[in-house]
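Recall that a protein's primary structure is simply its ordered list of amino acids. Everything else, from secondary elements to tertiary packing, is in principle encoded there. The following example makes that idea concrete.
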Amino acid sequence: MSAGFSDRAAYEMKGFLMISAYIDPGTGSMLFTVLLGILGVAVYSIRTFIMKMQSKLGGGRAKADAEQIPFAVFSDNKRYFSIFEPILKELEKREKPVLYLTASEDDPVFDCGIKGVTAEYIGPGNKVFTRLNNLNAAVLLSTTPGLEVYQWKRSPKVKYYVHILHAASEVVLYRMFGIDYYDAVLLSGKYQGEDIRELEKMRQLPEKELHMIGIPYMDEMAARREREGEAPPHPRTVLLAPSWGKSALFGVYGGKIIEALQKTGYHVIVRPHPQSFQSEKELMDKLMKEYPESADLEWNRDRDNFDVLRRSDILVSDFSGVIFDFTLVWDKPVIYTDPDFDLAPYDAWWLERPIWTVSALPRLGEVLTEEGIGDMKALIDRCLEDPRYAAGRQAVREETWEYRGEGAVRAADYLVNKYEELRGGEEN
């Protein structure tokens, strides 16, 4: 299903030209825009060539799969194991073998005990792509965007690439062209499919197979909540859990938000995005030094976020997917930053309508502004006590979490049926 080189180059060129126009829309100079576009394509081509050479020279010889693997999973980080775990357990019930490829040496998959799962560490660096680009499998499932965009290429020996979202939110908040070369996408809400179809039409791409399954990991979290119950009595607790990057909460407010939360007198838990400790290490070191742990402030880096969500009464975040875990599974309100951030690097920039999250967030809680930071206690109290947000959470839940409780079963059904379909094609 992979598009031809000429088609892909044409719309990537279009992407660079559109980005160039966005960066400097007031110049009015077509020549400048074209030159920037050409430069962008040149840089992209050189970078791709360098990556290929690095892969050949530094990645080592690709491991060969003697026989085609029915089902493979690729996870670029250990934190995504929770996305796959419920599906792996369903495939275990059906006695389906799975090869689990991970870029994390300490991925929980190595200790999961799920029968039929063979785990393989394929990192670091370019070794990941050397392995993936030569994989021999019928169906590959992954949360990772960027297939066929940079280093990760479609292997000629993989028949079908399936993408699953790692949060109950937008598919268009991936970096540009993030899922264009997947064969199928597993969805949790109708708006996701509508956005994908619009992008396909604009970019003149073949239609991917879109299959609604719901959200397996949220089903698992909800079931676990039922089993373990609510948190024991505790002081009112605020969870600060931002995403990462310049448009994220720390990128906009820095330590000012931590200071404001401390002034409320409530217990504060700070849980940065794991990527922040890699991409924003200097900022994280600075914040942790300026705001050290105390009786009323804790920094949380647990792999499993279940406990921290359970014992928090309200969440302060930005566009992180944890917003939907917190509000839809735990049925608690959120304070969020204005979602009007720079969409230029994302697929959402191509759309002519506001993204779904813009309509969802006001129904889940209060927006955080400069003025609001000045009196965080009043903002938190109002958000916790206003009954309209409970109704809003229910409405949003209906829009983005289809087939609640059935996600893993539906995902496993799809994968098994797709494998049988591919086998049937070979036999005919």
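The chain has three domains: 5-57, 69-215+412-427, 221-400. The radius of gyration is 22 Å.
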